[in-house]
Amino acid sequence: MSDRxxxxxxALIKDWWKRNGTSLVxxxxxxxxxxxxxxxxxxxxxxxAQNASALYLSLLENSLNTKQEVDIAEATSIVGExxxxxxxxxxxxxxxxxxxxLAVEEDRLEEAAQILAPVVEKPADPITGExxxxxxxxxxSAQEKYDEALALFSSPAPEAFTATREEVRGDILVQANRLExxxxxxxxxxxxxxxxxxxxxxxxxxxxxPAPNKDA
Length: 216
What we know:
Blueprint lengths: L5 H14 L1 H22 L3 H18 L8 H14 L4 H16 L3 H13 L4 H17 L3 H6 L10 H14 L3 H14 L6 H9 L9
Helix pairs in contact: 1-7, 2-3, 3-4, 3-5, 4-5, 5-6, 5-7, 6-7, 7-9, 9-10, 10-11
């Protein structure tokens, strides 16, 4: 398992990001709408919040454009403006997740890690932080920085993210050729599942691994 080439590991992270893109977009849109609405009623900075939301939605449209190549320069410019005008906001941090995704798609893993790290360190909320944490762990693993990736999971995950985190941890352990630990991580992920439809993928991963030797 540990002899995967860098190209193969990058392909794996791209595939994972693609499969998880829909849930990210839905969560992002909901979060932005909530933030803008809350700011509208709670304070006088409605214009700033709306501007941040507009910038974010522009970036989202850019990243979802399937008819032509994504304008990376424009995306970077939008995120740069959000860092200046809405630093620490949900819109800015979700935009960072999208920019990191674009960097991964261009095989710029070091840049993706640098984008994600500040969101992990100072997230707008625990959910945003966990999304960034799991994505950063994937990026570090693709760079074969397995210990650094696993260290991101030293603190407990938000309850709703326990299953996905354990699955990510299992994938990293497989890549690091720590197969018994990977089996345990996948088993923990399966136990924490709230959606039975997701069990099939975990069962296949468990079937591919040797069960831990309890007599060892």
